[in-house]
Design a protein that fits this description.
The complex is a heterotrimer of chains A (about 300), B (about 230) and C (about 350).
Chain A: H1 2-7, E1 10-13, H2 22-35, E2 40-43, H3 57-67, E3 72-76, H4 84-100, E4 103-106, H5 109-118, E5 122-124, H6 133-142, E6 144-148, H7 158-162, E7 168-181, H8 186-190, E8 209-213, E9 218-223, E10 226-234, H9 239-245, E11 249-252, H10 259-270, H11 276-283
Parallel strand pairs in A: 1-2, 1-11, 2-3, 3-4, 4-5, 5-6, 6-7, 7-11
Antiparallel strand pairs in A: 7-10, 8-9, 9-10
Chain B: H1 3-12, H2 23-27, H3 30-44, H4 47-53, E1 60-64, E2 71-76, E3 81-84, E4 93-97, H5 99-107, H6 112-117, E5 121-125, H7 127-140, H8 144-152, H9 154-188, H10 194-221, H11 223-226
Helix pairs in contact in B: 1-3, 5-9, 8-9, 9-10
Chain C: E1 9-13, H1 17-25, E2 30-33, H2 51-63, E3 67-72, H3 82-93, E4 98-101, H4 104-113, E5 119-121, H5 130-140, E6 144-146, H6 153-161, E7 166-174, H7 185-190, H8 194-197, E8 206-211, E9 214-219, E10 222-227, E11 243-245, E12 248-250, E13 258-260, H9 265-270, E14 275-278, H10 285-304, H11 313-321, E15 328-329
Parallel strand pairs in C: 1-2, 1-14, 2-3, 3-4, 4-5, 5-6, 6-7, 7-14, 13-15
Antiparallel strand pairs in C: 7-13, 8-9, 9-10, 11-12
Helix pairs in contact in C: 1-2, 1-10, 3-4
Chain lengths: ~300, ~230, ~350
Amino acid sequence: MAVNCNQSMKIAVGPVLFGWPEAKIREFYLALAKEGSVDIYYLGEVVCSKRSISGVIWQIDLARELRGYGKEVVLSTLAMPTVEAELQSIRDLVAAAKAMDIKIEANDVAAVAIASEAGLSFVAGPHLNIYNHGMLEQMCRQGAERAVLSLELPAMDIAAIIGDTQIQVEYFAHGKLPLTFSARCYTARAEGLSKRECRHVCFLYPDGLEMRCLDGEGFATINGIQIMSQRPFTALNHMSDLAGMGVDILRVSPQASGMSDVIAHFRSAMDGAMAARDALFAMSDGRDPGSTFCNGYYHGRQGRLWIKA
Amino acid sequence: MPSGWHNEVADTLKLKVLPQPDIFLRLMPGFAQAQTLELLLSRIFTPDRLERLQPLADKRLLFCTPGRELELLMCVDGRGIHILPIRGEVPDVTIRGDLAALTALCLGLEDSDTLFFCRRLLLTGDTSTGLLFKNILANLDFDLHDELEQHLGKRVADMLWRTAEQAVSVVERLDQSLASTGVALGERFGLVSAERAQSLETEISKMHEMQAKLQSGLERRRPGRLAST
Amino acid sequence: MNPGREKPELVCPAGNLPALKAAVDAGGDTVYLGFRNVSNARNFEGLNFSREEAKEGILYAHARDSRVFVAVNTSPNSHDISPWTSSIDMASELGADAVILADIALLDYAKKHHPGLRRHLSVQASAGNYEALNFYAREFGIKRAVMPRIVTLDTICDIHAKTCVEIEIFVSGGLCVMAEGRCWLSSYVTGDSPNMNGVCSPAHAVRFEEENDSLEVKLDGVLINRFAPGEPAAYPTLCKGRFEACGMQGHVMEDPYSLNALEMLPDIFAAGVRGLKIEGRQRSKHYVRTVVSIWRAAVDACAADPDAYQARAEWMTGLDAMSEGGAHTTGAYVDEWR
């Protein structure tokens, strides 16, 4: 029975993708740590280096603190480093991770290179574009012990990609989907500012800035240099199938509110305390999940859609 | 092919917009025009070229001008290219443009994306069929004038080419003078602001530039042959 | 290092054989093309090369001292990798001068099976820093990389100083405003993406509709743009669409401009860039001929005397006349754009 399968799965909380002040990030992770339902914490700035106002030191301190709760902590790196200072922040994270004997999540090939050279095992993050078995094997060769496959892949491809690879697989199972990266800050642009003089305006939008079509239909979410899905993706109801495909960990991506409930629903479905379908229904406040969530990518369809199982 | 079928085509194939067509074309009844065009296309599209059109098989392509002065519905199958009666047919894709733009597209004289960007050409309906048509046409890369000459003789080929050239130049004259007059009247009677009139004039002159380019494209290709017109 | 002394190579697009010949005849040093299958990022209806066409194109180019690069720059799936590997095999067999690859599985394949075939890193790999470039060079022997359109020219200069990988940058044509290879907007709306299907805003999902004199553009039913009568139109891509944010309607991501770096050419030379890439495999031979001719003249003028070089007005208007939106930008090469 699939429930047994579920029980061996773990829940991870992904890095905060939005612009949150350091205090809010600390508070968010520590509150979850006290609840104790999460198995793995990812933390670190993935989207925009301008948000890390006091560098990476505080992230490393927070990582230490979270480890005190006896759970795994992973330091996530920036997805689009281009300049020396950004590469240096990756080197700093790799050095800190090595000293603490924890992993980093590599979100750019630069991070793969730096971790591999340092002999540090890493998580191949969702922005490395793992679409096939060959790429996954190459990441293993460089020292990856876990991988998050490309978010736009249909779930039915997962088993074929894993093949005989001895690697943990993590699936982005809940949260707004990070869809793009650009050189330009769209939040600043919407506010009539430039990226250089952005005044950290993204901090005003802890769940991102809504972007609509001209006919008023919801379209997407602006998050600094990133565009995300309008609705959160969820694969809560496909948990058993994912376990059957060889997925070991389900990632929940942070949002400004309600995360404790989301994690509780995943936990109860995973532990068999509740049927996944019922957990989804509860998470949708009793409404049609299609009015709240999207899951098209899971089914190999348009990412914005909700496809009924 | 039954002649009744081509009589129906005659009602729908509206080539009357062609300016000052050669006496030969003017005297030819509509069904005969359709028949002649089909015959001509069957000569130009030799079996290997027809083979390359097959991805378009059974698709209905409608070419038309914005005011529907010209409408031409075509489809391709394994035997050839056919002109179809428009009545009752729903095209898969409509390729709409002024006569100059359509001429330029079909003769391969202008980049179709450029025509689209400046709003001279529009695809409605199944965009992928339209894109396929555009790309197949671009890849065939034959010289239409040479083809016409080979199949119809130099005299008729030059005549058809001249007709195409006239189509471009007449549209150019009409478009610009009509549009400019309209804007001037609109401004005079307070229907458009001076500012808007100015921007419309700019648009018109841009359009004019484009048409001049088309014209020179035609001339560049056949300098000797067209000098006499 | 002696930047600015070597004349960069003009790398020109060809979506079909007539365009390839036009590029070569107009003075293109190199033409890049893709095969007619899912293996390249311009997998459009009726576009690209069959084996026979590629063979003829390569012979044509080589006979005139031009080179041909073959783009195999989408990511294979795990069910059937053969469309990708056979494309690399074919490029090698036909004597292509380089393959342009993005996926690491394919870089590995090409290195193992065709060690003598020059490997370039596609823009789709989105490698915008020297650590990544050096990694690809060390592990997969890449000789050149096309920069994603997210780095400034200053950064390109720094990258060049810290890698032996040759740098190629886009200088003209359609402007992708996202980090190429890391944009899933197209699959979010249509189900098909550049990485998996080689398409962005695929034609099957595009509908142009006229509504009260204005032109509406829908992508899989989603309204992504509306053009006023007479207003220059743009490709139906999401990043150039009109949306609403903060109560304002407009181009939330990017205005429908084309990239044109003609005015920056002396700085580009000085940055040590080896390849100047022109976008537009979807365009006709007329476009290719015009654009390549302009760039040929500009590069030659800049090489002859970089200090006296100035982008001529007729070059700029010539490019604008054929470009998306009828206007241009230098994009991310200048920091202010961001």
